[in-house]
Specification:
71% of the residues lie in helices and 4% in strands. With 342 residues, the chain is mainly alpha-helical. It has one domain. The strands form 2 sheets. It has a two-stranded antiparallel ribbon. It has a two-stranded antiparallel sheet with strand order 3-4. α2 packs antiparallel against α3 and α5 runs antiparallel to α8. It is globular, with a radius of gyration of 19 Å.
């Protein structure tokens, strides 16, 4: 009963703070001129504030600090020292990405500073021992990577996830909803592994995203901006590698956006326009084929939830690998068909 109450308090705190901050982030965006106008990739009407990341980060941070505060005060179960370090790394790196993303929202920085900030965030994760070191591979079983694999792989994972979420944020409610689904599944997975206190943090992240969705779902009244997408990307990347088995969950629940980003990077690299924005993401391709924003977003939600649940329900590693292969083949085939005439 006490554990259930703790989870309810964390969820309610994150949702409430996010809901309260969302209208403020809208007004602040208009006051500071941090707004997106129709044109280019955006097809919305009128000016929309892009400072919604303030609300999402605020809700997550408030819930996270509440967990630390009540635990330290002896009102909640004590968090293990090892977990304190890991979860502190989640908050510190998330704060760094939020702050830089907010600066980008206000000044629209070029790609190089963004990549530098993402690399710095990856180093923060490594500094707090949030690393991909122990994994369970389908054929080789439990494997411990040497440092020369662990650290570059961690940097690649963190930077890749930040860019995945950043590029996913193209349709109203898409990034926030997918992040909510992924976070809920991370929370369930952490709880199933006995990480009852760790599970509170992905739960808080999911709650913050859900609190933001009423303001961000089509037609959006506020966008999360770089402050929201970069923060969410780091938070998902770090929370997904706090335990070895969560990597498979992350790959399946976020498989479609990850494959889309990989396909897009290779395609743009071949064309010599790697850093140039465009409407060649999967969600834009579907939009151009006549699907509505809500249809596309709900389709993403469905696929992410189904494959994420498969990761939790299927114990056999070979079947998980098979599910991932099916997802890769399906997504790549769809992308090839939709980009055939482009």
């Amino acid at each position: 009963m006490l554990v259930g109450m703790n989870y309810a308090i964390v969820f309610a705190t994150a949702v409430t703070v996010t809901v309260l901050l969302s209208p403020l982030s809208m007004r602040l965006g208009y006051r500071l001129g941090a707004v997106d106008r129709p044109g280019g990739r955006r097809k919305h009407h009128g000016e929309v504030s892009r400072l919604g990341g303030i609300a999402i980060f605020g809700g997550f941070l408030a819930a996270g600090l509440l967990v630390f505060g009540l635990s330290r005060a002896g009102l909640w179960p004590v968090i293990r020292a090892e977990d304190v370090k890991l979860l502190t790394g989640v908050l510190v790196g998330s704060g760094l990405m939020f702050a830089f993303g907010l600066w980008d929202d206000l000044h629209e920085l070029p790609p190089r500073p963004q990549f530098a900030a993402q690399f710095a965030a990856a180093l923060v994760a490594i500094g707090f021992d949030i690393i991909i070191e122990r994994v369970t591979l389908p054929i080789f079983g439990y494997t411990i990577f040497p440092a020369w694999i662990t650290y570059p792989l961690t940097v690649f994972w963190v930077m890749g996830m930040i860019n995945t979420v950043n590029w996913l944020d193209g349709l109203d409610g898409l990034a926030a909803g997918v992040a909510a689904i992924a976070s809920l599944l991370f929370a369930v997975h952490a709880y199933s592994l006995g990480q009852t206190m760790v599970a509170l943090f992905p739960l808080a992240l999911a709650a913050a995203c859900l609190g933001f969705l009423p303001f961000n779902f089509h037609p959006a009244r506020v966008f999360m901006g770089s402050s929201g997408s970069m923060f969410l990307g780091y938070a998902l990347a770090s929370l997904s590698i706090l335990a070895p088995a969560k990597v498979a969950t992350a790959l399946l629940v976020l498989g479609i956006p990850i494959i889309d980003v990989a396909f897009l990077i290779i395609r743009r690299w071949r064309r010599g326009s790697l850093t140039q924005a465009g409407r060649d993401h999967l969600h834009y391709l579907l939009l151009d084929r006549g699907m509505s924003q809500r249809q596309i977003v709900l389709l993403y939600y469905t696929f992410c939830a189904v494959f994420g649940l498969l990761a939790l329900l299927i114990a056999d590693r070979l079947f998980k690998l098979l599910a991932l292969v099916v997802l890769v083949v399906f997504t790549l085939t769809l992308l090839r068909l939709l980009t055939r005439d482009r």
